[in-house]
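Project standup — Tuesday

K.O.: blocked on the structure for the chain from last sprint. Re-posting the sequence here as requested.
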Amino acid sequence: MSNVYNSPSGVGGMRGMILAAGLGTRLKPFTDKHPKALAVVNGKSLLQRNIEYLQQFGIREVIVNVHHFADQIIDAVKKNNGWGSVVSISDETNEVLETGGGLQKASWFFKEDFVLMNVDILTDLDLQAMIGQHKKNNALATLAVTERNTSRYFLFNQQHELCGWKNIKTGEEKIRRNENDLQQKAFSGIHVINPTIFSFIKQQGKFSMVDVYLSLCADHSIQYFDHSQSKFIDVGKPESIATAEAMFK
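H.V.: unblocked you, prediction finished:
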């Protein structure tokens, strides 16, 4: 079931989902008593910042999945009237379903292209440009990426299409399309997705969107949008709060 908080008039158009169900173990000790979605950067929680970020691009209908200290998130949304957006809740208190399972549970919410993002990401990426590219290329999904260093990369061909995945620490590699000159790109946790994807997802229960994309990329166009020039931080660890506060006022 889902609950809806706040109903400003005139809402319509593209919708978004913010993934906020994770345990946030990297943000301990804060997450021993709170959900990571309510970690504060310069007086605003990560959840509020991302709801307001989506508003900048006309996205005012949002669904948020909850698990870890779910009541605290629901109370914050109620108390603040969704920070000016219509916020629905996808309840995962019984079991955290990961990114793929969480999205699939909320699939009823989406009728057209939508934005999916992690709550612990802060960025000034131009979503309008990303959505425009996604629609122009008629992609099943478009993934925000940068050129930063990380341990796990998506692998794309010269046409910007997803072909595989690689963990450079363990050497594990999953190649779904054998092509030359694959480019490594670091995923930013932001997606623009066409809802027809739900008819192709074969996984059930608890699963990752990475696995979904790798299972579909051989037959469907899953592309990237490079935003290496924009501000971006994964607010996953306590020390990253201070960095985020210097970047986002």
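K.O.: great, moving the ticket to review. The chain is about 20% helix and 30% strand. The helical segments are 46-55, 70-79, 98-105, 127-136, 209-216, 238-247.
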